[in-house]
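Hey,
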Amino acid sequence: MEQAKKNFVITIEEARCKGCGFCKEVCPKDVFEFEGKLNGAGYSISNPKHTELCIGCNSCVMACPDMALTLNEAE
C-alpha cells in the first residue's frame, strides 16, 4: 500500500526575517532560496520557493533564531 505524499505550507513573517540563511542551510530538500526581496528593515528575506519538496521535518522552524517561520500541513 502506497502512502500519500503530504503537502506543507511554509509561512515566513517577512518583518521578522533577517536573512541569516539558517533555514536554507538546514533544509535537507533545498526548499529555500534568496531572490533579493527585501523586507521593511532592508534584510534580504528567505523564500520557500520549492514547497512541493518539503517533507515537514521542521528543521527550518527550529533553526530560525527570529521565529519567523511556521510550517503546517496543507489541507
